[in-house]
Input
Amino acid sequence: MAKSKKKGPPVILITNDDGVTAPGILNLIEAVKDLGKIVVVAPDKPQSGMGHAITIGNPLRLHPLQLSEGVEAWQCSGTPVDCVKLAVDKILHRKPDLCLSGINHGSNHSINVIYSGTMSAAVEAAIESIPSVGFSLLDYSLEANFEGARKYARIIVENLLQNSLDKHLVLNVNVPAVPVELIKGMKICRQAYAKYEEDFVERNDPTGKKYYWLTGKFVNFDKGKDTDVWALENNYVSVVPVQFDLTNYVLKTKLEKTWKL
Amino acid sequence: MAKSKKKGPPVILITNDDGVTAPGILNLIEAVKDLGKIVVVAPDKPQSGMGHAITIGNPLRLHPLQLSEGVEAWQCSGTPVDCVKLAVDKILHRKPDLCLSGINHGSNHSINVIYSGTMSAAVEAAIESIPSVGFSLLDYSLEANFEGARKYARIIVENLLQNSLDKHLVLNVNVPAVPVELIKGMKICRQAYAKYEEDFVERNDPTGKKYYWLTGKFVNFDKGKDTDVWALENNYVSVVPVQFDLTNYVLKTKLEKTWKL
Output
């Protein structure tokens, strides 16, 4: 087992956005269970698409549950980001050595990183100086085959635990939905500019009032071979290092020149 | 009035996260009303801290309302990001020339950009190739004095409408809570690494069950004079250009060298 800089085995916080009962989180726990002391704090219901939302106008609840032998697990009434904040402040009372989020049912490549509760939990950890990884499998189904995702999650976590890490490290890892033997390996990528083109379905409710439901079709505007979308289409696991400094430095330099303040 | 590249006056979409009845959004409308055709689509209730959340498991509603003479206005049951998506797809049926979000009651400088519904609405617009600006005033109160914020919102919007813009431009504009005559001007800045240190209040509800409520104290870890926090502390309006490509290119290069895939 990899050693923590602190005494004892490394403490690994696990969360997700599909909720504590999703097969994806159980697969993540099983993949890394023997690599450290695992503590799970995850939403008590699905929280997909919650982005970096936090709960500020309402109280939060925590309830312990049995998830996997030898693993401390809590379900939380809040968002994935709330889970990370509460875990550090009220359950662990310290920063874990690593935070893992997922394994998400469905992709979080390209622009999805910004809507994803899974990735926002990982980003929140990094803001709090906890290195973190979000894992996603390109299969929305509850019966998805997580074999490849488990394999690469373990490779990545072992690697990270053996090296001294940037405390703000965040990796966005997506795994193609193909049998594990067809996965060609991992690629370090950049985020593709690819997004959903919205098309709200318009319907009338039983009282005749209009409502709208978000649907859309995914469009890739980015043909780069260094992108996560390209890697996944070619059966690689994509690994995108993510940052939370949103400053657009190129535009900053341009505005400094043209605005002449 | 500045000309749109399309026929007629520029179309300006206005949204916020404090909800359609917040004084901040009325102040923003008043500040720019004569610069184009204004269409307001904003949440029907406060949505602070919603980050980039979208509504995927529930229907959305839109209701017209009277906000300001000559201004088309809608309240939406969803998040700030939902408002932008619905506005483009179901109300405007085209991309507006500009999207403005705010004026937020309270700061969105430094890491707050990532939790802010106000800024996430602006970022969503930019993802959809609509140049956008989020405005925030460093005063949470309903009775805040928006005079300085209105003045600089107008200066910035006039400037943007007169120039050809990067379609992915997003500006995060924060205004100090001081009388307008004390504001020294605008500064183009980077996002400071400054954040809230969480401290959840733990209480028992009337049935004796524990609940937690998010509180925290703001800590600035970043002493740079090129940051938004520095600018605001020195009575400048801070302008941070924001991007939605979250790739950490420095870490990408480092991982490419060390992981040897």
